[in-house]
Amino acid sequence: MPRRISLTQYLVEQQREHGHIPGQLRLLIEVVARACKRIAISVNKGALGDVLGTAGSENVQGEVQKKLDVIANEVLVEANEWGGHLAAMASEEMDSIHVVPNRYPQGEYLLLFDPLDGSSNIDVNVSIGTIFSVLRKQGHTRGVSEEDFLQPGKHQAAAGYCVYGPQTTLVLTVGSGVAMFTLDRETGSWLLTEEGVQIPEDTKEFAINMSNMRHWAPPVKRYIDECLQGKEGPRGKDFNMRWVASMVADVHRILTRGGVFMYPWDQREPDKPGKLRLMYEANPMAFLVEQAGGRATNGHERILDIVPKKLHERVSVMLGSRHEVERVTGYHADTPA
Ligand code: P6P
Description:
This protein is an alpha+beta fold. It has helices at about 5-20, 25-45, 65-80, 145-150, 220-230, 245-255, 280-290, 320-335, and strands at about 55-60, 65, 85-90, 100, 110-115, 130-135, 160-165, 170-175, 180-185, 190-195, 205, 240, 260-265, 275, 295, 315, 315-320. It folds into 2 domains: about 5-195, Fructose-1,6-Bisphosphatase, Chain A, domain 1 (2-Layer Sandwich); about 205-335, 3-Layer(aba) Sandwich (D-Maltodextrin-Binding Protein, domain 2).
C-alpha cells in the first residue's frame, strides 16, 4: 500500500531522489494535473451541462469535434500558456502548434496532448481520457517552430494520461517508473495510489477492434488467430478479449493487470501506417508502458525510436505485456515486406 501522499509531495521527493524534475517540469505537471481536474468536472456534468454532442466543427484529422474535445483543448491551452514553463503546445485538436504569446515568458518545455481521447464514448458514458507528452525544446532562442516538436519519443521528459472513469486517475512517468494518483473529490487532491507499476510479462487478454480483421496484415491475422484457437491451438491457453475504444481505458487496464493492445496498419488506408497518432497518443503510452516493463512497437521497430516527419503523423501500435508484443513483432520479422 503506497503512502497517501499528494502529487506535489511525490514530485518534490522525486526531484530530491533523482534530481530530474526541475522546477519548470514540476510546475508543468502540476498545471496539467489541475487542468485535468477541470476537464473532469465538465466530463462528469454530462447531460446536466452543455457538454455533450458535437461542436459543429472538424479537427485536423477530418474528424467531427465533440463539444468536450473543444472544451478540454481550451482548458489545457489556457492553463498552460502563462506559467513560463512552456515554449509551445501541440494538440490533436489544433492544426498547428500554439506558441506561448509574447506577453508571457517562454519556458524550455514543449507540451503535446490529445485533450479528450475516446470521444466516441462521451455520449454513451464510457471511460475517456486526456493524454499528454512533454519534450524539451532544443536550443535557447525564443523562436519555436513545428520542427522543434519532431523528436523521437525516447526524448520525452515526462508523459501521462488522466482517465475519467469510475475513478478519476492520473498516471505519470518522469522516467523513473510509473505512478498512479486518484482524485480525492472531497479535498480536490491527487493522492498517490500506486507506484512502481509493473505490467506482467505474459497475459491471456488482447485488445483489438475485431471488426477490422479482414483488413489486417498477415502477421496480425496470425497472432489473433492463434489467440482465438485457445488451449487447443499453438498458444496452449485460452484468451479473453477487451476493446473499450478509448486507448486510455485499454492502456490503463494493461498497466493494471497486463494484456496486449493493438491498433495495426490495415488495408482500408494503405498509405497511412495506422489510425493512432505518434506524437500525442503512441509516444506517451509507449513511454509509460516501457517504464512499467512492457514493450511498444509498430510491428517493426520500437515506437520510442521513430523519428517523426510530421506533427500529426500516424503509427501502427502494438503495446503491453513484453512476451506478447515480442511475439507479434517477431511474426512481422518472419513475413517478407
Ligand atoms: P475504433 C479513439 O477515437 C481512438 O483514437 C483510441 O482512443 C481508440 O483506441 C481508437 O481510436 C478506437 O478506434 O476504430 O475502434 O473506433
